[in-house]
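Notes from hallway chat w/ T.B., transcribed later so I don't forget. T.B. wanted the structure written out for a chain they're using in a teaching module, and asked if we could keep both sequence and structure tokens in one place. Agreed to drop them here.
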Amino acid sequence: METTGQVVNPAQQQVLEQLGSRDRPPFRTELRIDLRHELEKAFQPMLATVDPAQPLFVSKRTIGLVHSCEQHYVSDAALDFSWTIPTARGRVAHKAIELLIGHRGHPTPLDLIDAAMARLETDRSQIGDFLLGLDEGERAELIGTANDLVTTFLETFPPLQRQWRPVAEASVRAEFGDGLIQLYGKVDLQLGYARGVEAGKVTIDLKTGRSHHSHVDDLRFYALLDTLKSGTPPRLLVSYYLDAGTPHTEAVTEELLWTAARRTAEAVAKICELQAPSVTPSRTPSASCTFCPINDECGPGREFMADRQRG
């Protein structure tokens, strides 16, 4: 990754050095087939539990929840998602960065946010209604917090170059059992491209807040889906923390992909098992208890959070 005649600051130069490389590791041509075969074999016993009228859609979020705490996953799945200013903040910032790729000239962060808000307000999903229902104070608060994230990105991430082939909100999907089980995701930002079996793509997940070990697993899931899609894995996985303006990176290996495949198969097995009314979900206290819908009535969760407060 190189910039063409543009001056970069020290933070941007650091990102270039961490993400850029002329090394293109090769992968086996059979890797995609082998991974798919193992997942098909793992999913085969589960297909009979899936209602054809309601295919099982599995994302990085559902995988993370069911591995973290089965009860949290079940409680979360029973709720209708509702937007808030903190959750919309990331969505608006992501959309603004997506628009940056095709924007001509030198837009300011607020220009990008205004354009992002205008497009999201016409979205037929819930976020459009949420944005249109904000009062002036709430709207100003949302724009201010999103502006902070976009400004940090522009100040710390090197200017996106066309030769990097940047793609925002890249969809990845893999279907099994004639679509009964569908693994899916949207990658925030991809740079570079593969040359045959030689990896060159960099997969970037834009994060708000502090780093967490689950972020590594999220990116490995994306790498697995990308490999199933194109046959050649990404070269590098990057969690880019917008609040701090710093990237955490991990090189992709074949063992990493097999680990992601096993973790995915185990999560799908748990999800299918939990669909049976006779199964009682296990409760595993962790930092995610803070965001659990039933944290006020879960004994292990309350005790865990009380211990954290005392500590």
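Follow-up for T.B.: Strands lie at 56-58, 167-176, 181-191, 202-207, 236-241, 246-251. Might be a good example for the class.
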